[in-house]
Automatic annotation (TrEMBL):
Family label: Belongs to the ABC transporter superfamily.
Ranges for domain ABC transporter: 4-231
Natural source organism: Pseudoflavonifractor gallinarum
Keyword terms: ATP-binding, Cell membrane, Membrane, Nucleotide-binding, Translocase, Transport
Protein name: ABC transporter ATP-binding protein
Role noted for this protein: Probably part of an ABC transporter complex. Responsible for energy coupling to the transport system.
Length: 231
């Protein structure tokens, strides 16, 4: 089975906007799956349905082959398993310094302090921000903030990491450093990664598979080679 699968997933906003219209996608475990599409295609809505911030209007989501429950009591576990890194790191970094920002989610899980410490140290190492631990978050560069945001998701030990436009706002070197970090997480932790992007250049380099969304529907899918060959 796949790490994530959606079957005819639908979502309609309260004002009647049909943002997802029977989306069926599959993300292989330990792979990077790209979600391409113009503004308004439905990428953010899809991600918010996957982590339970929104509840599907129809269809199914499966995680590791099991149908996801959107019952209120099951949502905390869903949000822990499916971590989201927002496009703008300032939307998820609130604490006074890097260490406290990264530990936030783990503290919230109610983990014992020594387990929090272990996870934070590991997450800092994996994202290369250990030397920044005592820095105020607002003093970091944009690329450093992105890494701290990723570390803050890693401490939750999610099975899936979703990133919204992870390369937006980075210079070419920043893009390749960030994408190398993500491929290392994929290869070393067998992390399943889903990323939304406008950036067609990163798809052949870093995505194992990709979907193209348009108007809330899947307009195309394939490996990078297949997508490039499509008319
Ligand atoms: P089938 O329906 O016969 O399983 P697919 O057309 O779905 O075949 O997939 C063809 C190949 O692409 C398979 O090797 C599958 O593992 C791979 N594949 C399909 N979806 C994804 C995905 N989201 N991520 C990575 N690889 C995928
Ligand atoms: P993307 O992330 O690909 O830019 P979105 O998921 O944000 O796409 O948007 C999909 C569709 O849903 C668009 O038509 C958008 O205008 C609409 N939409 C997004 N958020 C809301 C909302 N809160 N209320 C009503 N419509 C929304």
């Amino acid at each position: 089975n796949y790490a994530i699968e959606t079957r005819e997933l639908c979502y309609t906003y309260e004002d009647g906007t049909r943002a997802l219209d029977a989306i069926s996608i599959r993300a292989a475990r330990g792979a990077v799956t790209g979600i391409l599409g113009a503004n308004g295609a439905g990428k953010s809505t899809l991600f918010l349905n996957l982590n339970g911030v929104l509840t599907p209007s129809g269809g199914q989501v499966l995680l590791d082959g099991k149908e996801v429950s959107y019952a209120r009591r099951d949502l905390p576990e869903l949000r822990r398993k499916v971590g989201i890194v927002f496009q703008d790191p300032d939307d998820q970094l609130f604490s006074a310094d890097v260490y406290r920002d990264i530990s936030f989610g783990a503290v919230n899980l109610g983990l014992p302090p020594e387990e929090v410490r272990r996870r934070v140290e590991l997450a800092m190492e994996r994202t290369g921000v250990t030397a920044l631990r005592d820095k105020p978050t607002h003093a970091l560069s944009y690329g450093q903030k992105k890494r701290v945001a990723i570390a803050g998701v890693l401490v939750m030990e999610p099975s899936v990491m979703i990133l919204d436009e992870p390369t937006a706002g980075l210079d070419p070197q920043g893009v390749s450093e960030l994408m190398r970090l993500l491929t290392a997480l994929r290869d070393q932790l067998k992390m399943t990664i889903l990323l939304a992007t406008h950036d067609m250049d990163i798809v052949p380099l870093y995505c194992d598979y990709a979907y193209v969304l348009s108007g809330g529907r899947v307009a195309g899918e394939g490996t990078a080679e297949e997508l490039v060959c499509q008319p």
